[in-house]
Write a structure and sequence with these properties.
Layout (H helix, E strand, L loop, with lengths): L1 H25 L8 E6 L2 E6 L18 E5 L2 E5 L32 E7 L2 E8 L4 E5 L8 E9 L4 E10 L11 E2 L4 E8 L5 E3 L6 H27 L12 H23 L3 H5 L7
Parallel strand pairs: 9-11
Antiparallel strand pairs: 1-2, 2-12, 3-4, 4-5, 5-6, 7-8, 8-9, 10-11
Length: 283
């Protein structure tokens, strides 16, 4: 009897651990995708759509658990950077098997569309959480925001939803409209503070001059290293004597000083003391 009870307790703990691990694995599965950095020119534009903001503790995530757009007889539900959650007003449509089924319709995808066909609302999954990608809207104007694209592969056709998250630091606006781009490809626009980037790396840098200096220094280092190896292993020199053309390098500072001193004398002309050092000669 004790063995049976112990077995069932172990089995219960096993299923509890499995449930915890499954839940942990399903939390924010694409949060890394919604935290992206793009290098444009000499600046790094970092976007973190899921980071909390003062007035938006969940970032770009809808606090209702989903965004909703209704156009004519078509209704679209979607969530950015996570799966949808319906605490109220869940989708009621047929053919929802790949997005939670009839009892949990909309709970296992990130974008779901319902169209009224013959008096019935028919669902189509157009976005999955695991197939979400993020890209910059305009490389010429990185401040504009990012595009979050989610896709779904079905038996009949492939679908996608692209949501442009436009930078607006003052308010949230939209989505109000839905644009059809292809057979089963759609686009929507959302203005949100999370679409604004954090910019790092100001300034133009060294440009071509910096690149040239790096090449020269690398060549000079290679010259010293190759010369030292040759003089040590083939000529038997040790210590400072391994440096190639050591006499030239030791005299270089003095030669440089003399060169600049001669240039100064050339542009300033002879000094007063130099002119007076000669005595007049009478013939």
């Amino acid at each position: 009897m004790k063995i049976t009870i112990s077995f069932f307790n172990s089995l219960r703990y096993y299923f509890l651990i499995i449930a915890i691990l499954h839940r942990a694995g399903s939390l924010n599965p694409v949060s890394a995708v919604c935290e992206r950095s793009f290098v444009v020119g000499n600046k790094v534009y970092s976007f973190s759509l899921v980071s909390p903001l003062p007035n938006f503790p969940h970032g770009v995530l809808s606090e209702d658990g989903f965004y909703k757009v209704a156009v004519n007889k078509t209704v679209l539900w979607f969530q950015l950077c996570d799966g949808m959650i319906f605490n109220h007003d869940p989708p009621r449509c047929v053919d929802c098997l790949d997005c939670g089924g009839a009892s949990h319709c909309g709970m296992e995808c990130s974008a779901l569309m319902a169209k009224n066909i013959g008096g019935y609302d028919v669902c189509t999954t157009i976005g999955k959480v695991t197939s979400t990608t993020t890209n910059i809207i305009d490389n010429q104007n990185p401040h504009k925001g990012v595009i979050v694209k989610m896709t779904s592969s079905g038996s009949e056709h492939n679908c996608s939803l692209s949501v442009s998250v436009i930078c607006d630091s003052n308010r949230v606006l939209g989505p109000h409209s839905l644009e059809k781009l292809g057979t089963c490809d759609y686009a929507a626009v959302l203005q949100h503070p999370s679409g604004c980037a954090t910019i790092n790396g100001h300034g133009k840098g060294w440009g071509w001059f910096g690149t040239l200096m790096i090449i020269v220094l690398c060549l000079f280092g290679g010259y010293l290293l190759a010369g030292a190896v040759y003089r040590h292993f083939f000529l038997g020199f040790h210590g400072l004597d391994m440096i190639p053309n050591l006499d030239f390098w030791t005299r270089l500072p003095h030669r440089t000083q003399s060169f600049f001193a001669s240039l100064v004398r050339k542009f300033r002309g002879p000094t007063e003391g130099h002119r007076n050092s000669y005595s007049p000669v009478n013939f």
